Amino acid sequence: MDSGVIALVGIFALAAVCALWKFSHGRSIERRLAAQGFETCDAEAPLLERTWRALAGRDASQELRLVHCRRRGMLYHFTVRERPADGRTSDETANPGASYPAYLFDVRDPDSLSRGAVTLYVLPPGSKVLRKLLAGVIDLAESRPSLEVGTHPWSASIVAAHGSTAGKLDDLMPAAVQEKLARAAAHGYFITHLGNGKAAFAALSNHRDVDLQIAYLAEWV
């Protein structure tokens, strides 16, 4: 058989394996969410999208969609699909975008958590490769001012912080809340948003332990 044909067959076989893994991965998450009591709520996707867009600081030019929406009480789970905004450099525009699972819910006593909207990017300390990848995500996604992160014992888990105005994270968020959010990294989360009485947590797309994710959120809801 011609080497070119063999290579083509190999490419198609690899694509088929990847598609099968993605399908199996998605079905596994669906089963775990159903076992946790989540039900489909796709009709609420437009409202959830507007809420997510506001929390994440995405403007109207940012392509963003929420799909596979599910709900248990006031706790929502969905998949975020986004691409860089128009008008960026050609290299960034060529980026295929991001797709990741996320949760959204109302918080108790929001004023005690943060004085204003705050977004934290978190990863376990020492994750050099993931930190580099996350830095790329931040460069593509963030247009809001950065916040200076303190030197607390848990600060190594906070890769970056952003808010509506520049300043220090310590001035906007109590240390105990920072520590609690930093622990989200150990449960598969890499972005957390607080604002307008709501909290949102974005998980790494390859993190499959839905039960671990929800167990952490039980500390908030």
| Fraction of residues in H or I helices | 25-40%
Largest sheet: 8 strands, antiparallel
The parts where pLDDT drops under 50 for at least 5 residues are 1-26, 87-95
Helical run tally: 7
Shape: globular
Strand order of the largest sheet: 1-2-3-4-10-9-5-7
Query: How many strands in all?
Result: 10
Give the total of domains: 2
Q: Give the topology string: H per helix, E per strand.
A: HEHEEHEEHEEEHHEEH
Task: Give a brief outline of the structure.
With 221 residues, the chain is α+β, with helices and mostly antiparallel strands. The protein has helices at residues 3-35, 45-56, 90-93, 128-141, 169-172, 175-182, 210-217, and strands at 39-40, 63-72, 75-83, 98-106, 118-122, 147-148, 158-163, 167-168, 189-195, 198-203.
General description of the model:
The chain is globular, with a radius of gyration of 19 Å. It folds into 2 domains: 1-35; 39-217, no CATH class. With 221 residues, it is α+β, with helices and mostly antiparallel strands. The strands form 2 sheets. Strands 1-2-3-4-10-9-5-7 form an 8-stranded antiparallel β-sheet, covered by helices on one side. 38% of the residues lie in helices and 26% in strands. It has helices at residues 3-35, 45-56, 90-93, 128-141, 169-172, 175-182, 210-217, and strands at residues 39-40, 63-72, 75-83, 98-106, 118-122, 147-148, 158-163, 167-168, 189-195, 198-203. It contains 7 helices and 10 strands.
